[in-house]
Design a protein that fits this description.
Plasmid_replication_RepL; WH_DNA-bd_sf; 28% helix; 2 helices; three-stranded antiparallel sheet; alpha+beta; Plasmid replication initiator-like protein; 21% strand; Arc Repressor Mutant, subunit A
């Protein structure tokens, strides 16, 4: 879900927890646990912006846009 919704030219998507849960049809606990697992293994970095989380995907895992236009925030 994160990969499909990344903004072109970045490797990030901003979404609230309730919206994330609704889109994928899972409980808050399940989504929180899954995102924590991804963050713990350096697949994503979580940046809090007000009440919304921005999930920054490790450019080594996935990237939106062409190779020459990569402007990654997070690379592990």
């Amino acid at each position: 879900m994160i990969r499909e919704n990344m903004q072109i030219g970045t490797n990030a998507v901003a979404i609230s927890n309730p919206a994330f849960c609704k889109i994928i049809g899972k409980s808050r606990a399940t989504v929180t646990r899954a995102i924590k697992h991804l963050a713990d293994h350096n697949y994503v970095q979580i940046v809090k912006v007000g009440t919304t989380n921005t999930y920054v995907v490790n450019e080594q895992v996935a990237f939106a846009g062409s190779r020459g236009q990569r402007k990654a925030v997070f690379s592990a």
